[in-house]
Amino acid sequence: MSGDHDHSHPGGHAHTHDGQNAPSETALRVKALESLLVEKGLVDPSALDAIVDYYEHKVGPRNGARVVARAWVDPAYRTRLLTDATAAIAELGYSGAQGEYIVTVENTPATHNMVVCTLCSCYPWPILGLPPAWYKSPSYRSRSVIEPRAVLHEFGLDLADDVEVRVWDSTAEVRYLVLPERPPGTEALTEDQLAALVTRDAMIGTARVQAP
Fold this sequence. Notes:
Layout: E1 2-3, H1 25-39, H2 45-73, H3 75-83, H4 85-91, E2 102-106, E3 111-116, H5 125-128, H6 133-136, H7 138-146, H8 148-154, E4 164-169, E5 175-179, H9 191-195, H10 200-204
Parallel strand pairs: 1-4, 2-5, 3-4
């Protein structure tokens, strides 16, 4: 295991990665505020949903996908990304709050990395957007440390027994980006075509990048 948090957890329950746990006090407050704004006619709920979807699935993850694709096609950039990820990511114009210090960890045939934040939901917003609901769930936050292979299996990812699984615990000071393995058979693809293959989950480590 790697990271800075104290890995002390209650026993992990056999929840799926969607997590069906009760919402936190913060989530309840946000929901109450959202409901009030909608009731007062100050916010269009469909517009709010569209904004959340845009940042969670499009803007942020697309930034990270471009970082990964550049690392796949440019060995010098890959070296910089693994040496000083924050600076290398800033080279492509991605920086800001929640991305002040990012570390890149690389998947290889022998090692698979996955990212969690056991205490809250620290996440590299400039390159991955908003964290998905399952990333913030108590089930994922505890079980990823206790039984990472079981969690990966629930995401549909089964690793060979000889592959080492490393779990990186994000903090307010350090956030992680997984550099996935480039899928075989993509040698002729352009950088843009490669970026289109990279998913948010692959950059968290709960999926592999699939060839087209």
